User: What shape does this take?
Amino acid sequence: MDKKNPKILIVGPDRTLQREVESALAAIEDINPVTIYAPDFRQGIESARNRRPEMALVEMGRDNRYLRMFVEEVGAASPETAIAAVFHPSTFSEHASESEVVIEALRLGVQDFLRRPISSKDLEQFLQRTFKYAVGRQSQQGIIATFFSNKGGVGKSTLAVNVACALGKTAPGRVLLVDGSLQMGVCANLLDMTPRTSIMDAVRERDRLDETLVRELSVLHEPSGVHLLAAPADAVEASKVDDELMSRVLTLARRAFDYVVVDTFPMLDSVMMAVLDLADRRFLVTESVVPTLRGALRLLKTLDDVRIPSEGRRIVLNRYSTFDGNLRPDDVAKRIGSAVEHVVPYQKKLLVAANLGTPYIFSAGVASDFRRAIGKIVEDIQGARTGSRSSGARSTKEVNA
Assistant: This one.
């Protein structure tokens, strides 16, 4: 849970509730929340599925049937979301005491309560309770790391596969590689695998999808100990994978595996947004090529515009070489206005490894620059479990539903 930039979903037909919450949040120091407003329960459920908020503030009415539906569906689709019921004593009949209202909501599965008008003190205490609960809860969840880019051909998939395999050696059987490059996934080819199942099976079984089924749909790559959830067989099938399905798969996957590595397609669509929203580490892969860097800069600005938190975001300069005239890491950092966290050297043997379907990390020498670079990325991902930053890393408000 991001304590500095929590996503807070506000659900209810009264728009003054949104202003009330934002006014209370403005008085709380050291946080920069993103508020998401939904005018009804159905839109609130969709927002919870797509945006994965840390908390939801839901306006209670006289009829709790919709509140029950909201709690049940959000609990299944976004179990990490803490739900608080917001109520005004005048909403209920004179025959219903406040304690009766609270007890009924508790039975529905609501975790906390806020009385209107909402004060900054009450809201801050709710945030503190939620964060405290989330610390213990998140320790049981796996880490999601995604590799993305503004264009194809920068070696993103190769990095994702090699990093997953390196993680697999440290946590055999507890790493899942998700080929989220839905239109043209290559992870299976890079691992010399022909899986019989893919993410399309999750689409077909979405009504009974759970952690066990996600594990069953993945295929073990025995040399590395990594499980692979393959991309669809073709682009027509890929169109059936939506952001809701991807969010659900990743949420379930992080309960079944310690690490979930996601390769992606170079296009910022709703599926990509769902992946980036959920990721603990977001590795933007680029090269020392000016047109590519300009595209990366535009992508970074877009991510800021749509409020994807910069915390956990890393710049990876891939295929780096020191020949004369090539942009240095510091030059790259200046051009994109962001520090280059990881530098992966050019290695021509990667092409041979890709043709053989054997990740190069298996044959790279212990002291090789490539292995060291991959090792630093692995340390960075592992650091997300402990809240620490990789020692090898380089350093040079409202969204409507």
Observations:
- The longest helix spans residues 120-138.
- The two ends are 21 Å apart (CA to CA).
- The chain is about 45% helix and 20% strand.
- The chain has two domains: 7-138, 143-400.
